[in-house]
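Purpose: get a first structural picture of the assembly so the mutagenesis plan has something to point at.
Setup: two entries, given in the order below. No constraints added.
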Amino acid sequence: MNQLRIGRGRYASLNDRVFDTVNILLMLLLVVVTLYPFVNTLAISFNDAIDSVSGGIYLWPRVFTLDNYAHVFQQSQILNATMISILRTVIGTVVQVFCSAMVAYTISRPEFVLRKFVSITFILTMYFSGGLIPTFLLMRDLHLIGTFAIYIIPGLIGVFNLIVIRSFIEGLPEGIIESARIDGAGEFMTFIRIVLPLTVPVLATVALFAGVYQWNSWFDVFLYNSSKKHLSTLQYELMRILQNTNSQSSSRQVDFFAQAANRGQTVTPKAIRATMTIVASVPIILVYPFLQKYFVHGMTVGGVKE
Amino acid sequence: MMSVPFVIWLIIFRYVPVWGWIMAFQDHKPGRSIWDQKWVGFKHFEFLFTDDSFYRVMRNTLAMGFIHLVLGFVTAITLAILLNELRSIVFKRTVQTISYLPHFISWVVASSIITTALHPEEGIINEILVWLGIIDKPIMWMGEGKYFWGIYGLSVVWKDLGWNTIVYLAAITMIDPAQYEAAEIDGAGRFRRIWHITLPGMKPVIVVLLIMNVGQILEFGVETQLLLRNPMNMDYAETLELFVLRWGIEQGNFSFATAAGIFKTVISVILLFIANGIAKRLGEARLF
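Result (structure tokens, whole complex):
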């Protein structure tokens, strides 16, 4: 069949060739539209701040410098935000993957009588929620506002991830789990020793989703922890910089430039913004292409099976 | 047994907030328990429906939700089909990997990129449009409300186009190759094969995703709008969720904001059922 198509491709009609050419051009356009903004931001972040003001930086820095990055990381606030971002990503991901896998394992066991009920209770929450305000008040009543825990606890289990892991576990040969039972392993030991190692491929998928979610979160910081400077994240710091560039010269920004000026350095909002944009996105850009196989599989399973 | 703590977690964090809906029928005073509040019936809902800004907010939410839904589906399905028609596997893989990129960055990063591209003096969009002679002078894209819906639509497409093709491409690989072979022998050209084989093969997935997304129409509207809005385009940018945020968190009127939130959830569930019902009527795949 493949051979047939390739064979015909060689003698493709004019129509076919026009189609292919247009198609390839469209794809190239897509690639350019997707990549250009990143390349351009990267170029500006490595270009001298004062020089950038005159514009005309497209794909490559004109006056190369590392100063912008030096400025950004000399800010204790940014350094601290980077730490918080890394912490919440690592802890949040590990905890979410472990907890979701545990629940997925229980609801995949045929002998668990409440299996159906528990699954539905979880899945229902995908379609409705209490909403912003009741959730906010709940967090306040639980005294989670202004704490690091608020980044981790409300996101303990991701329902979508739960479904993905469950369908994977259900696809495992039943005999493996049974044999562990016969050897006298308890539920928890079976889970740790047998189920977890076998589900590594799907856990990688879920870890990517959870990690991306944690790294990119800013709305919870904005909502619950905006007054706690020490719990700010990189995304939230970038957001503040963006909002400040829009509504010129807030006290924070004046601070920022005053500090830089004291050190005899020159920074501009444009350069800082580009640099922060790169800092906030680079870890994920570097990781995702290697996990492509996994997330494509995870999306397919989770998207089709509900 | 292991799942017990997590079911408790689920009830606390996902179901207790629904309990908070009671607030919408009370005049919530901070510092008192939910039993100790004054009951006011549907007062907050009545006030909501008589508030002029509520209609503006509804218009924005529905318009942007609709744009998001339609534009998102059409572009993703088209891209999936075009990718499937590429002859070079390496080229296809490369385009796919690159197209997933914007999905993985946060909306904060995306909004930074979007506002940079649309900047009146330095933005690449204005430079290209002026260079092509389409406009004579740069436009303040972010400064006028009338452009906001379009900017929103293009932003969500830019960010999630590639990502949304994953499920469609998976559906295409499930199509029996023999069908294409037969069509080819019958002399069906490229477009007819796409129309008669590829699209029908994707239909069940398209329908299920449409139903799920119709239920989400009012929910598209926090992060993106919150980040892209500014005082100049506010009239077109404020959505129901931002309305809730403004009344609840900024003004402290929890009861009124909750009423608006309930309205949103109830409409979402109704839309989900309607979409599911229509799919059932038409004999299509459906969610439940």
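Chain B touches chain A through 90 residues (CB under 8 Å).
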